[in-house]
């Protein structure tokens, strides 16, 4: 008899014995029998649960499942940059997991990695998570500075006691926070293992013209392992003496700040390991004259540079000009503004000499209405540009003038793919195509500013001009045939 049959036989004998003796059993004996049977039932249920497929998963896999449930609200309000007075670390999904079953609870409580993200506003939860559930592993803190602590000596009260375990710190504070007090606390903050620091404040509504003088935040000595730094709404102070191991830097400025470009370049000059550089809303590039010379700032590991919401394309390029970046670095220039005429735009904003465009073999150009968008891809490089043109620089003639400089911006002779979406004459497009001798794929979309142009003589003339230019026989004209390697054409 196997174990299954043996156990079932014992259960049947027990049931028969109870039927025979139940009338003669005392009430106390019946209660004890119930307790014994209940304990046996719990033991059997646990054995069944242990053999359910989901409960046979190794803890490593179960933890990954738990982590996915924690990310159901993505991105977390306390991770994305930007001031959110209602932002808090979402812990409800994690707490719910601990109430599903005993095994899930024991697994979740036994692994401190699930409890590393901590919100400092709920003191009871802070103590539970920081001192018990996450110990002794590394932790990540989100701290929204409460108004009651803005002008106190313990402004950053939770940090000193956890400094050795702290890996990420996100500080958010309102505009009315005392600058002097906050700067002093950050300056004296000692976290030897901190890897990521973000400092966010609300958009100040004070008089921008009366901002305080430039301040500095010393980081290297007290934050030796810092790899990523992000600061939003920077107005009157900047970090300095950052550790050379920093790989990620994000700076978002108030539009009317008094921080000179030399201060930013001085920071970059001491960050040889920088991989990601993101600058937003900086409008002081004009303070640096184009004639200034100096040793290029070497950033050999830079993988991505992002300039967003800059006042003009020329100023964005002026900020990049002192940087020596590898050709594999991808350049992303987004939501730039252009208020000058295209003539001056051509003179000071031609995209020439950028390492990111040297090996371009696929180019997309969209010059419709008041927007200019360019995407250039290479085997190991990339360039993306989005410019908002004003009415003064958005006319057809001005766009034609600017695009006439395209051969100096990109290596058209090595392009294999070209996409054009614009509302320019066919002659302008044909002039561009004369440089694309290796082009195999061409897509041209003629787009007009309003319905009155659609279907008129201009559209017919543009299409006819492009078709005639592409089909021109070398023997019938003095100019060589356009795009001799062309395999695919869409108009």
From TrEMBL:
Q: Which Pfam families match?
A: F-box-like
Q: Which residues form the F-box domain?
A: 55-121
Q: Which Gene3D superfamilies match?
A: 1.20.1280.50, Ribonuclease Inhibitor (3.80.10.10)
Protein name in the entry: F-box domain-containing protein
Taxonomic lineage from the root? Eukaryota, Fungi, Dikarya, Basidiomycota, Agaricomycotina
